[in-house]
Specification:
154 residues; alpha+beta; 4-stranded antiparallel beta sheet; 41% helix
Length: 154
């Protein structure tokens, strides 16, 4: 009996695997639940991707700003100490940018350089030459700032 079906081989009185119900496909409730899951599940994933893409853009601009500040700071520190000391004498300390070393006025994202003599013993700014100069570089209109000290060569 090669062509036997499962109904022919089943013993009389044995329970059907589907408990008397015929399997003809999915019920309306099953289709509705599946459709609802397909509609709801991607929403948090798309929101997470959107936040990630926004974060990478913000990180990129912050990184560019940081490297611009580092570049300007290195440019200033490459100047001879005597030039920096002279500029610190002629400016009003860290409240007035040094126009000779800062970017030109009106430029977008202007880098400002501030110089002031620094007294290491008192840990404060000084009005006279002390052998240390505080160098501060900032982006105009931003809170991004890099500050360091440089000293005269012994």
């Amino acid at each position: 009996m090669l062509g036997n079906t499962s109904a022919e081989t089943r013993k009389p009185g044995a329970a059907c695997a589907h408990s008397g119900r015929q399997s003809r496909g999915f019920s309306y409730v099953e289709v509705l639940v599946a459709t609802l899951l397909i509609a709801i599940v991607p929403v948090p994933a798309v929101e997470a991707l959107h936040s990630g893409i926004q974060g990478s853009g913000i990180h990129g601009s912050r990184s560019r700003d940081h490297f611009r500040l580092v570049g300007k700071l290195e440019e200033v520190l490459a100047k001879p100490f005597d030039v920096l000391s002279e500029q610190a004498d002629t400016t009003g300390g860290v409240s007035v940018p040094v126009s000779l070393l800062s970017d030109s006025a009106g430029s977008v994202g202007r880098l400002l350089v501030y110089l002031a003599h620094y007294d290491a013993d008192a840990k404060t700014l000084s009005g006279s030459a002390t052998g240390l100069i505080l160098v501060r570089v900032s982006i105009e209109g931003s809170n991004d700032v890099l500050t360091t000290l440089t000293r005269s060569e012994p």
